[in-house]
């Protein structure tokens, strides 16, 4: 009897301890498999100008600051920072005891090295433009670093999200090896890279912020949307990100899967060339926009993957002026369009044998469909037009040389209006493919860059947008691309947000499987 | 024979020079600058200039050509997009491609040749009509579509095989399991064309006089078909298989995409898309060398199956 009691006690103790142990570990996820749409080519954070590379590198490397909820800048490796009155000096105070994956401590020297490397013209980093306002970098002590700018540059803080690399390791192995065997201070460390197939990362248990719930992360490159859908159905992946409209529908009402969407950062737009006839005529541009029922076409073609856009800036980004831009956008008016085309032909602006070419990248099916619908509408309004869907590299080259009159493009960038507007609409902007020149716009863009007064910046950007989109019709925004995550129903805390990251371990989330 | 092989291998030298010159010439004509594509929306004139300098795009045509050929031959060619040596990048992919190619070849040969022979022997029978009907479908249905159907049946509906990805080397269980579906999908086209060629080639040889002679001598029908007819019908069959295999090395792009297979086909497409000139150069050149080698192998096999052919 006594024995029986003892056994009972032991068994219940055992069961009790077992359950508490299970409870403590319930968030620990042994393996999490995700599918991405392209192959990762290089993980050197100084060269990650290609979207998939950037997203994967963001899991391995951490920056001084990070993107928090609603893309607000929050402390990362730097626990605090101060900006001088004149906006020229940024001083960052680093956390102590932050470790790289090789066990070395991260210090201000590593931060200095990271930025000097990107600033070095010989290294040829695409990120340089974002931080080229840096005049000097000064290491004050192991945990304090000061950046001095040559002129005030309000979006500067966004450049502080770049992943910090360990100086000693990077110097020892060189750029090539760093890109292939990256060592950072981020939540995950590199385990195995089977090129073209998959990358295996593991949780970094000494991560300064919080230890990831996911212990083994497998990132598979699955370019074909249909295959990604099948992988989700067969349980081969827990999470997929680039499904097209046709595939998505079958998941939306299925209780075994979660489909989450968020306004994405991408903008699809139609652009005109200001250096070419007849697209340089405002009347022609207006007629084109009046001829095409974009408000009907866009929702039909983009479906859940896009939201009709009236601004170049994504809905998640300030300033908020969408109502004005929407109300004042050129609306559908086929008769007016037809009449304008007639007049332009009579005036000789549109030559008799003119065929309007609409250029679009053949790797963007939704844009191609929009271009096709647009061409049909233009023909109905009396303008002979055709779609020229071509491989992106070729089109990009022609755009740079100013050989294209009307084009569709998609653009994604970081959350500051400067990144979006300066490059497109400044006379010497690096992406000014419209060859648009306006002194007033140039001045507004320069002023907005130099001031750190938020209200003033908002006003300046509103002026720019109203001028280029409503008055001058340089670009016509079509759709903000929506970011859609499809995941198994047991995946928790995974929310789409910033499309430049994979939000597995963020200030507000730590993804796990139930 | 040995001298012949050496001679054929020496032919590789003009092939490499010819292919590399044409390839390099075309790459110069194709619009698009790798630096501009790589930088994407981060493009600035300074960054493009820096990358052009870094990768030597500012040198004159002939210097760049010789530099690239030299680097290719010494294995020092560096990819722009991947930031790694071309030889390493291709080496990693080639294993996956060869495994896929060889397994689908084996499947195709095992299925197609018996089917073609039986169809020819039993000409106009139900088997003949059915098998040739299926073969016509096999040729006309694109392999990627077959691939998607296979995935649906064998990974989603009956979840017995993984739907995509590379699972490791062919001799591991995981590697083999991942390989089965893409290999079958890829083999469908080859099965279709090989079985049709086998059938028509067999029909041709079966009309030959020596078969009538053999029959009149009372040789068993089985021996007539397998030894006399089939062996002589093999030449066009082998030629076809050789061509298909050579094409498989570079042409399995769609299958590689559907099954997320890390092969050289997808790599070559990516290289062209990103205007990664060294990688285009290296990968296409290696594929052409493989093409020549497979054709050489086919020619050598001819000697073994048909004693009338000899290379002296």
Structure description:
The complex is a heterodimer of chains A (514) and B (312). Chain A is α+β, with helices and mostly antiparallel strands. In chain A, strands 1, 8, 9, 10, 11, 12, 13, 14, 15, 16 and 17 form an 11-stranded mixed sheet that branches. Chain A folds into 2 domains: 27-259 and 488-511, 3-Layer(aba) Sandwich (D-Maltodextrin-Binding Protein, domain 2); 263-480, Dipeptide-binding Protein, domain 3. In chain A, helix 9 packs antiparallel against helix 12 (365-380). Helices cover 36% and strands 23% of the residues of chain A. Chain A has helices at residues 2-25, 51-60, 108-119, 128-131, 167-180, 225-234, 245-252, 282-291, 294-302, 322-327, 334-346, 365-380, 392-400, 417-425, 439-450, 454-471; strands at 29-36, 65-67, 73-75, 78-83, 89-94, 134-141, 144-149, 188-194, 198-203, 214-221, 239-240, 257-272, 306-308, 356-361, 385-390, 406-411, 475-488, 491-492, 512-513. In chain A, a hairpin with a 5-residue loop joins strand 4 and strand 5. Mean pLDDT of chain A is 90; it is low at 20-24. Chain B has 312 residues and is an all-alpha fold. Chain B has a domain at 97-260: MetI-like fold (Orthogonal Bundle), CATH 1.10.3720.10. In chain B, helix 2 packs antiparallel against helix 14 (277-305). The termini of chain B are close together. In chain B, 39% of the residues are buried. The model of chain B has no long low-confidence stretch (mean pLDDT 86). Classes of the chains: A alpha+beta (514), B mainly alpha (312). The interface between A and B is large, with 53 and 53 residues.
How would you sum up this structure in a few lines?
Chain A: InterPro entries: Peptide/Ni-bd, SBP_5, SBP_5_dom. The complex is a heterodimer of chains A (514) and B (312). Chain A is of the alpha+beta class.
